[in-house]
Amino acid sequence: MNKVSNKIQRLEDINAWKESRKLAKIINKTFSKLPKHEQYGIGKHLLENGRNVPGNIAEGFGRFYYKDSVQFYRVAKGSLNEIKSDVYICFDREYINEDLLKEVIDQT
Fold first, then answer.
1. Which residues of 62-98 are buried (b: 16+ CB within 10 A; e: fewer)?
2. pTM for the whole thing?
3. How far apart are alpha carbons 101 and 87 in whole angstroms?
């Protein structure tokens, strides 16, 4: 096996980015469960953070300097924590069930 084939050369080679795309799909499912009055509050926040995670991973990958890349990865991690907090709030308010909560948490 060629060593070069294991090297991350494209955005599509990054597992964290691929997994964050899956999370974004789960976030869309979560959004659809929210009552209308929450879709522009916590729902909008969930959707934005669901997009921010893969977006910041992509931006970090595209940076030339290591420290620049790390900063974008840190922002992505922060967005993951915000998602966790928001879905716990959704669960506590009984907008989502435990299965959906677990699905989101497991993906983060």
1. eeeeeeebeebbebbeebbebbeebbeebbeeebbee
2. 0.88
3. 6
| Mean pLDDT across 7-27 | 95
User: Distance between CA atoms of 74 and 67, rounded to whole angstroms?
Assistant: 11
User: How many Cβ atoms are within 10 Å of 38's Cβ, its own excluded?
Assistant: 18
What is 14-107's CATH superfamily? 23S rRNA-intervening sequence (1.20.1440.60)
Mean pLDDT, the chain, as a whole number? 93
Spell out the domain ranges in the chain.
14-107
Residue 13 corresponds to which tokens in the numbers above?
Answer: 């080679």
Question: Does residue 80 have a pLDDT over 70?
Answer: yes
pLDDT at position 2 is: 47
Q: Are 76 and 58 in contact (CB under 8 A)?
A: no
